[in-house]
Amino acid sequence: MDYYAGIDVSLEYSSVCVVDAIGKIVREAKVESEPEALIAWFASLGVGLARIGLEAGPLSQWLYAAMREAGLSVELLETRHVRDAFKAMPVKSDRNDARGIAQLMRLGWFRPVHCKSLAAQEVRAVLTARKLVQSKLRDVENSLRGILRGFGLKVGKTTPLSFGARIRELVASHPNLKTVAAGLLSVHAVLLREFQAFEKKVRALVRQDARARRLMSTPGVGPVVALTYAAAIDDPGRFASSKRVGAHFGLTPKRYQSGETDYSGKISKIGDAAVRTALYEAAHVILTKPLRACTGLKSWAMRIARRGGMKKAKVALARKLAVILHRMLADETIFNPAVTPIAVA
Question: Which of 39, 58, 247, 317 could disulfide-pair with 283, CB 3.0 to 4.6 Å?
Answer without folding.
Answer: 317
